[in-house]
Amino acid sequence: MGFCFSPASRSVSMFPNVSVLLVLLLSCSFFASTEAYDALDPNGNITIKWDIMSWTPDGYVAVVTIFNFQQYRHIQAPGWSLGWTWAKKEVIWSMSGGQTIEQGDCSRYKGNIPHCCKRNPTVVDLLPGTPYNLQIANCCKGGVISSWVQDPANAVSAFQLSVGSAGTTNKTVRLPKNFTLKAPGPGYTCGPAKIVKPTKFATPDKRRVTQALMTWNVTCTYSQFLAQKTPTCCVSLSSFYNDTVVSCPTCACGCQNNATMPGSCVEPNSPYLASVVSNAGRNNPLVRCTSHMCPIRVHWHIKLNYKEYWRVKVTITNFNYNMNYSQWNLVAQHPNFDNLTQSFSFYHEPLMPYGTINDTAMLWGIKFYNDLLMEAGPSGNVQSELLFRKDASTFTFEKGWAFPRRIYFNGDNCVMPPPDAYPWLPNASIRWGVSRFSLGLILLVLVLHSGLF
Ligand SMILES: *[C@@H]1O[C@H](CO)[C@@H](O)[C@H](O)[C@H]1NC(C)=O
Ligand SMILES: *[C@@H]1O[C@H](CO)[C@@H](O)[C@H](O)[C@H]1NC(C)=O
Ligand SMILES: *[C@@H]1O[C@H](CO)[C@@H](O)[C@H](O)[C@H]1NC(C)=O
Ligand SMILES: *[C@@H]1O[C@H](CO)[C@@H](O)[C@H](O)[C@H]1NC(C)=O
Ligand SMILES: *[C@@H]1O[C@H](CO)[C@@H](O)[C@H](O)[C@H]1NC(C)=O
Ligand SMILES: *[C@@H]1O[C@H](CO)[C@@H](O)[C@H](O)[C@H]1NC(C)=O
Ligand SMILES: *[C@@H]1O[C@H](CO)[C@@H](O)[C@H](O)[C@H]1NC(C)=O
Ligand SMILES: *[C@@H]1O[C@H](CO)[C@@H](O)[C@H](O)[C@H]1NC(C)=O
Ligand SMILES: *[C@@H]1O[C@H](CO)[C@@H](O)[C@H](O)[C@H]1NC(C)=O
Ligand SMILES: *[C@@H]1O[C@H](CO)[C@@H](O)[C@H](O)[C@H]1NC(C)=O
């Protein structure tokens, strides 16, 4: 299904006859979750950099920095954990800005006991409010890392460790192996550590540059398929020109199954709810019973039609009683995003993974206003209106053109309704400049030309 994400098929989406297209996109989104490659963020990765700052009598002191180079995927509470396997018998004497979750067996040490003697340590971030003497720059955020577009200053996390029983020169040091990054669940796959040019650091007054004694990088990439087998989000649609509300596809994220899994979902007014919410562990989804069973629903309502503009209302609803989504974000693809004039209650930023096609935007909440999508219930939703400027050559309400092509919530693809269910225009207004036949022909030629079939 690689073709789904080729730039060629994206350019096709600039054309208004979308029924064929939507079928294409839909069949793509169905398979999208099996791909490690993300078409809207093709270079997205998390890079883990180890900088050796000094050699010690039996090892080295390193600063480990985790950079989230993903445009829209962030790591939220309870945060990342990073594991690796030592190449030899290394131990961690001490750490700041982070800690291992287990000390392991240090019984062969007397007097000075290492922080961790495990062959495969797992490190987590320290919590906010950690004493200053245990902090380093960019640490102590409870493992939360922002996405690169949303907040680049907080897209970094770091800790420092002093390693013993290790090589003490750049010839004898052995790189750790088998890196694993949990965020906090599965989803990331990390490559091997590679020695790179030593990092250069500028002093605060920028009058002197120092450098690491040695640096290696590890790159980790995300796959929705590895993270979870079922979708977590769906899309519903409505419009001012048709009373039909197209709800999320039934069973988009799972089916209600009372017989085999009682308690797999809860009714909003059940007395049972209060007890399960307090008993279910954090991060166990506890979704409200719906036909789609998704924890998140994104509703796209075509609200108004002006002469030169049109207006959409986007509502994100949380159906998960056990999750507050902090710093949530939405990525939406629609050909009119190149003329998004205003987004009233969300921040927005165009994403242009291919440089020229400007049909994708990232939207997120305003700090302290709606950047926290609260657990399911009366406050469990956020909304904004989007104002688009019409481009006369492409704009139409016909054939579902005004609905989004693709929506991601927190980096995960949302299930769209089937295109044949989209609200129709009332018959009388089906009159637009170019005939549907010729548009269909253009599209067909394009599709054939880009070798899709
Ligand atoms: C990781 O992302 C950065 C920033 O986008 C990019 O420069 C780098 O090439 C990427 N690394 C890999 C291995 O893709
Ligand atoms: C190791 O250090 C020597 C100088 O002591 C330097 O010439 C060499 O490039 C370094 N090698 C690596 C892999 O950093
Ligand atoms: C790599 O790490 C995983 C998880 O920690 C572990 O199951 C696996 O055995 C490790 N592989 C090697 C070669 O150490
Ligand atoms: C190693 O990682 C750093 C920081 O992420 C990056 O600036 C550098 O380009 C990376 N080096 C390579 C060779 O990928
Ligand atoms: C499951 O149970 C709920 C009430 O507990 C009910 O509303 C729903 O219809 C049931 N679903 C099925 C598929 O039986
Ligand atoms: C969500 O946040 C509210 C207010 O901060 C808090 O009362 C509630 O317990 C949180 N819910 C979860 C599931 O963390
Ligand atoms: C992309 O579209 C946005 C409006 O959504 C606009 O502000 C921006 O200038 C456009 N960028 C390019 C390169 O056309
Ligand atoms: C829409 O955006 C495109 C690209 O940014 C621009 O060329 C075009 O003039 C805009 N149309 C209107 C009506 O503003
Ligand atoms: C509204 O759209 C639905 C398809 O979702 C269609 O069945 C219905 O006829 C449309 N209503 C009108 C008034 O066109
Ligand atoms: C729209 O037109 C089709 C045939 O072109 C007809 O079958 C349908 O009933 C009409 N719908 C409405 C709401 O008038």
Structure, described:
- This protein is mainly β and 453 residues long.
- The protein folds into 3 domains: 32 residues; 181 residues, Immunoglobulin-like (Sandwich); 199 residues, Immunoglobulin-like, CATH 2.60.40.290.
- The protein is built from 5 helices and 28 strands.
- The strands form 7 sheets. Strands 1, 2, 4, 7, 9, 10 and 13 form a 7-stranded antiparallel β-sheet that branches. It has a 6-stranded mixed β-sheet with strand order 15-14-18-19-26-22, with no helix packed on it. Strands 23-24-21-27-28 form a 5-stranded antiparallel β-sheet.
- A hairpin with a 3-residue loop joins strand 18 and strand 19.
- The chain is elongated.
- The protein starts with 6 loop residues before the first helix and ends with a helix.
- Bound molecules: 2-acetamido-2-deoxy-beta-D-glucopyranose (10 copies).
- One 2-acetamido-2-deoxy-beta-D-glucopyranose binds next to loops.
- One of its GO terms (biological process) is cellulose microfibril organization.
- One of its GO terms (cellular component) is side of membrane.
- Keywords: Glycoprotein, GPI-anchor, Lipoprotein, Membrane, Signal.
- Pfam families: COB_C, COBRA.
